[in-house]
Design goal:
alpha/beta; Spore Coat Polysaccharide Biosynthesis Protein SpsA, Chain A; five-stranded mixed β-sheet; three-stranded mixed β-sheet; membrane
């Protein structure tokens, strides 16, 4: 049902936390594969991906190019979730995603509708509360989610948007996001602070 793509770069500790939150989705049959699109990491990112049974795509390219390569490498899922390694989804996320996909497909809107998670920091301190409020307002008034909110979209819609970009039309990942077609799920994407170097 769902292929997860995680773009990484020296994300060993963050990736382990991110993947742990995906386990309930794999157990429930929502997650069918996880692709780690890595940019020349020098830490244990590749080992974490291998130990978790993920497919690894290693290429020294910018984030969007690695995500595009991940989409092209999908073998199973008809839906794609692009997720940052610094994010872990809160418990129960897979139930809501499964219901969203089922509802969208039943309505015949799979090629149009996209979704993101609510943005939240794992550590709740004052400056971060202001950041959460900023992201919420940005999403509400401008319809512009941040990468940490994830992106849930139909695989065919993403592939078509990327093909349009290659032909010189406006497209790419941003091409599938429209405030009219964007749903914000109740489940939160919990952003973890960066691991100290």
């Amino acid at each position: 049902m769902l292929s997860v793509i995680i773009p990484t770069h020296n994300s060993e500790f963050a990736l382990a936390r991110c993947l742990a939150a995906l386990v309930p989705g794999a157990i429930d049959g929502v997650v069918s594969e996880v692709i780690v699109a890595d940019r020349a990491s020098t830490d244990g990112t590749a080992k974490v991906a291998d130990a978790a049974g993920c497919r690894l795509i290693a290429m020294d390219q910018p984030r969007e190019a690695r995500i595009e390569a991940g989409i092209a490498a999908i073998e199973r899922g008809s839906w794609v979730l692009v997720l940052e390694p610094t994010v872990s989804l809160e418990p129960g996320w897979q139930n809501e995603v499964g219901a969203f996909i089922e509802r969208t497909e039943r309505a015949g809107r799979a090629g149009e509708q996209t979704a993101v998670f609510r943005f939240a920091f794992d550590e709740f301190v004052r400056p971060r509360r202001l950041s959460q409020a900023y992201v919420a307002l940005r999403g509400h008034f401008l319809g512009l989610p941040v990468p940490e909110q994830g992106l849930l979209a139909n695989r065919q819609a993403l592939t078509a948007a990327l093909a349009g970009k290659k032909r010189g039309r406006s497209g790419g990942l941003d091409g599938v996001i429209s405030w009219r077609r964007l749903s914000v799920l109740r489940s939160r994407a919990l952003v973890h602070p960066e691991q100290p170097a």
